[in-house]
Amino acid sequence: MKDTHIYHNTIIIFLSTFNYCIIKGRCLFWRRKVMMDNILNQIFVLTVLMVVGIILRKKNVITDEVSKGMTNILMGVALPCLIISSFNIKFTKDMARNSINMIIYSTIVHMMLLAVSSLLFLKMEDKEKSIFKFCMIFSNCGFVGYPIAQALYGDIGVFYTSIFTIPQNIFVWSYGVMLFSGERGLKSIKNSFKNPPVIAVLLGCLIFIFSIPIPKPVLSTLKSVGNMTTPVAMFIIGAMLADSKVKEILSDKKVYLASFMRLIVAPALTVAVLILIKADKEMINICTILISMPAAILLGIFAEKYDGDKKAASSAVFMTTVLSLITIPLVIAALNAVL
């Protein structure tokens, strides 16, 4: 086999319709196809769950009181369990070093988006401003990001996604709550640490740093309860959407602006700032992909809990989720071309 060349288990593949590429261990094009299928499948599932929520609301199964109760269950039980279970990961010294870098990069990215959004939406009214700022800063990297990261990078992708969400969770439950509650300064930040999800993050950090083993029955329980997070959250969002008219959503130019800032501008700024600080290529890829997710579903949850603009919030979540079917593959393709 003279024409066959093997260099350190590297496989070289050439297809007439693609440029050749060098990868290790697996066929890159096969992985890309599987990755894209997983991305589209996950977003499709979220959309279907929202539609179910709409139907349940139309059938008066989810009333206002039921919606409030579901929100409390989500924020007080399901989400904390999901967060704690995601920290049950062992790591080596190299992973520890990379984890620190990921925390730094995630913090820088969220602070950058916070600063940029504050300047861009400075002249908006408070309720509208809170929607736009939250939408641009916080992506749905928890519920959509995990399966996409796993499709791209396997278990290591899930690990780094867990690390990336540490600063995000802290920002969400401090600055994010402050946006909707109206509280300012240290009081809002102090009160944020009373929220179950923030407490879960702190407990998760202890488990992660000290490699504290979680008994299998406890871990199974945490995962089972945590798995409620996505369907319950999307039911709530769907119930909110049921009170809105689709034609009004589609005709609202501001929803498209919010979607553009979340799905295009935020990932572009993320790539730029991480290249500027000379971050590792793999870290740039992971951070950008996670930031390119649709708006965090907590946008709608917070609007419900703190009497914000529920229609605008749920519309932004709905529109960014639908449009992300197109933009996420484009972002991934752009990363492959640029980096």
UniProtKB/TrEMBL annotation:
Pfam hit, one: Mem_trans
Source taxon at top rank: Bacteria
Protein localization: Cell membrane
Ranges that cross the membrane: 39-57, 69-91, 103-122, 134-153, 159-181, 193-212, 255-277, 283-303, 315-338
Gene3D superfamilies given in the database record: 1.20.1530.20
Biological process (GO), any one: transmembrane transport
A GO cellular component entry from the record: plasma membrane
Protein keywords: Cell membrane, Membrane, Transmembrane, Transmembrane helix, Transport
Membrane topology: Multi-pass membrane protein
Family designation: Belongs to the auxin efflux carrier (TC 2.A.69) family.
Protein name according to UniProt: AEC family transporter
Native organism: Inconstantimicrobium porci
